[in-house]
## 1
Amino acid sequence: MPDLGKYALEVLSAYGVSLVLIVGIVLLSVARSRRVRAELEAVEARRQRNG
Amino acid sequence: MASLWEYANPLKFMRTTERILPAVSALAALCLVGGLVWGFFFTPDDFRQGSTVKIFYIHVPSAMMAVNIWVMMLVTSLVWIIRRHHVSALAARAAAPIGAVMTVIALFTGAVWGQPMWGTWWAWDPRLTSFLILFLFYLGYIALWAAIEDDDTAADLTSVLCLVGSVFALLSRYAVNFWNQGLHQGASLSLDKEENVADVFWYPALVCIAGFILLFVALVIVRTNTEIRARRMRALLARERGADA
C-alpha cells in the first residue's frame, strides 16, 4: 500500500466510491440481461406450445 | 465488406456483438485493473498535489466517458430520427445509465480532489456547472424513456432531448476554453505531447482510458441486447393480449 499521507481519505474515497459504482452497474446490467433473456425464452416457449 | 446498416437487423446485431463480447470484457478488465493498479501503486506523488494526483486515473477517464457517451447517444439518436432503426434508439437507451454513472464518478472524484487543492468541494465554475447540468440531462433522458409506454414515441422524444442536451455535453468539454474564469484547469491530456502531463502519469492514464472505453463497449453490448429482447417480449405480450381480446 503506498503512503498516501494526509490525503489518504480523499484518494481512498475516490477509488472506493468509483469502484462500487462501476461494479454496481456491471452487476445490474448482467442481472437484468439474464432476467430478460429468461423471461423472453419463457414467453416464446409458451407461444410455441399454444401454436 | 458488410454494410454498417446490416447491424440494424436486431438478430445480426446480437449475434455479432455476443461473439465479440467475451474478448471485449476480458480486455476491459485487463486494462482497468492494470491501469488502476499501475496508477495507484506504481506512480509517484505530484510535487504540488501530493497523492491526490492518483485521483487523476479515475477522474479524467470517467469525465471523458461522460461527455463521449452523450455524443454516442447523439449519433445513435440521429440515426433513429433519420433512418428509424430500432437498434440505434435502443443503443442510446442502453448507454444512458452508463453515462450517468460516469458523470457521477467524475463529479464525485472532482469534488474530493477539489477540496484539498482548491479549498472547496464545489464551485459554480463553467465546467463543473455544465457537468452537473449534463448529469441532470442524463436523469431526464432515463426518466423520459421510462415514462412513455410506446417505444417509438419514447425514442422520438428522447432523441429530441438528446439533441438539446448535446449543447451541455459540448459545453462541459469546451467550457474551460470558452471562459477563462473558474477553477478548473484546461485539458490534462492532449494529442499535442507538449501540453500533456508527464509521461509517468500519462502512460497509466492511457491504459485506464482504454479500460473505461472497453468497459463502456462491453456494457453497452450487454444492455443493448437486453433492450432488444425486452422490446421483442413487449411486442409478443401485446400480440397475445390482442389475440385474447
## 2
Amino acid sequence: MINDKNSQKIVDIIRNYARKHSLWILAYGTGCGAIELPPTMTSRYDAERLGVRGAATPRQADLLLITGYLTTKSLKRVIRVYEQMQDPKYVIGFGSCTINGGMYWDSYNTIKALDRYLPVDVYINGCMPRPEAVLSGFAKLQELIQDGKANGAKEYKENLKWYRDNQKKVITNWKMPEYNW
Amino acid sequence: MMMEEIKTTIIDRIKLHFSDAVEKEFSYNRLDFSVKKETVPSILFYLKEEMGFKHLSHISCVDWLEEGEFEMIFILWSPEEKIKVFIHTRVDRSNPVMDNIDMIWRQANTYEREMKEMYGIQFTGLEAPEEFLLEDWNGPPPMRRDFDTEAYAAKTYWERPGREDALDVRETVEKRTGEVLPEFAKKYKR
C-alpha cells in the first residue's frame, strides 16, 4: 500500500462510510427512554434502514444508548459496559436526564450531567424524545462519523484521569478492573 | 354475612385478646387498629392464623418528625372475607427498634430491608445482606424527613449551569411572559 496522506484520506472516507452504516446499538435502558426504542426499531420508523440495529453484548456493539437517568449504582455498570466495548465506539445521551438531571435534578442518588463521566458524542433533547428525534440523533451521529468528528473514545483515553476523578467522586467504593487499551 | 357484621366480629375478637388495640373504622371494607409496638408480632400472628388474614399486602412507614416518632403500618388482606385490616404502631424516632416479623410472612423480609435502609429502623434478629437498593451509601437514611435531598444533591453532583431560573415553573412563567399568577397558585410556591 502506498503510505502517503492522500491514500490515507481515501481509506478514511471508505472506513467512515462503512462505520456510519453499521451502528449496532447497546441500549442501556435505565429510565423511561427504553420505551421509545421499540417504536424506533419496528416497522413504523424502522431504524434498521439506517443500519441501526440491536447488539447482544457490549463487545459486539458500536453505540451505547443511555436512555434516561443514571443512579450512581447504574453509573458503575455503565462505565464497565463502556470500557468493555471495542473501538470504534460512540455514546448517545438520551433525554434531558442525561443532559442536566431533568426532573431528577434534586435526587440524592442520580447524576446530573453524563458527559462528566463518559464522553458523549450526541445528546438527544426531550423528555422523552419521540422516535423522530431519536432518528435525527442517529442521523447527526452518522454525519459526525462521516466527517471524522465522533472522537469520544479517543477523548476518553486522552483525558482518562479527569474522567476517573469525576467517576471516583460519586462512586466512593471503587472496585473496578483497569483496562489497558 | 354483611360487611358491618364481619367488622363487628373482628373488632370484638381483637379487643378481647389485645386490650391495647384501639380501632378506627373506615368506609366499606377497611378497618384500622392502633397497638403498642410490643403487641405487633402477636396481633399479626393471631390475625393470620385464627382470622384468615393470610395475605400481607404491604408494610409502610411514616416519619412524624414533629412528634419524634415513626409510624409503621401493616396492611393485611383476607381473601375469604374480602376485608383489609391496617395495624398501626408507633416507634420512637431516636431509637427505632422494631420486632422482626419475617417468620410470620417470609416476604416481610424485603420490606424490612427497605425500611432499614430508607428510614434506619433496626429490626431485631433480621437476617439480610447489608445493602438493598442503595450501594456504598454513606449519608443518613434518605427517606427521613430531616434529610435535605436538595442540599445533598447540590453537594455531591455537579450541576450544569443554565437552569437556575427554571427551578420554579410558575415563577419562571410569570417572569418570562408577564402572566399574573392566580391567588390560589401562590401558596404552592417554593
